[in-house]
Amino acid sequence: MSAAVLFDVPAPAANAKPKEKRPAPVYAERRWFADVDRVTYLGTHQPAWLEREEFANDCVPLCIAHQRLDGRKTMPRAVTPWMLDFGGYKHLEKFGVWTLSPYEYAAAARRYYDEIGLMDVCAIQDWMCEDEILAKTRLTIDDHQIKTVASFLNLMTLDAELPWMPIIQGRTLDDYLRCIDLYDQVGVDLTLEPVVGIGSVCRLQKTDEAARIIETIWGMGIRLHGFGFKKTGLRRVAHQLYSSDSMAWSYNAVNRAPMPECEGTHVHCGNCPKYAMAWRNQLLNSLPDDPQLLLAA
Q1: What average pLDDT score do residues 216-220 get?
Q2: pTM of the entire structure?
């Protein structure tokens, strides 16, 4: 998925004049929370961040895509927990199929698990259900759901010791419930899984429909991970998500001036750990401590 779609960054017109960049966020200290924070993974393009002490000291979990690790001769050694994503939307958008076999992906994930350490969870090779992906694959939502469930089964068969995260896919509440049924039919009780990803909802995260989908599945006792959730979406459903991740801070930083302490160091803070921490702290501080307040927000 392009940054413009996923993070609501409008594409500039061909003849548009450059706009003055907005100021960077002011660094805010992290507040303590009861159970509102859950697990909020900070997305990053930089594998070396896994070794940075500031993330370990503040207990900040990271999210890194397979493409950022693939082909490296040596791996960083993690000092903070992290999750492995695949960047599947861009992959299917480009190729229309998975070009990496389950054998290859399982072998790669095993290497990351052993050499990097501290891996919390690794996403499967799921099949997204956005219109443009369906147009590219020329398959139906039902087909994508079956292939997603098959991916979990294949990867579990290849290496059941890895923390594979099953993912449910769909477009409507009925779609997601049908996908849950598919897992149940092959003997996978999602209520027993540590966490279950919910795909293809990032565009809907501001809507009542997304809130209804997540509330219904949360009510079934399934611990959900929300892909690509940022502040507006989290304020609606943070109390019903076990975990979430976001790269929104990086796209946000590209369109803003660098932080005062970063001026002269880089043009923008799109790969700046100080900015990432400031953004994440502001995100968490914006969530009410009381889950009941989240419902009214």
Answers
A1: 96
A2: 0.83
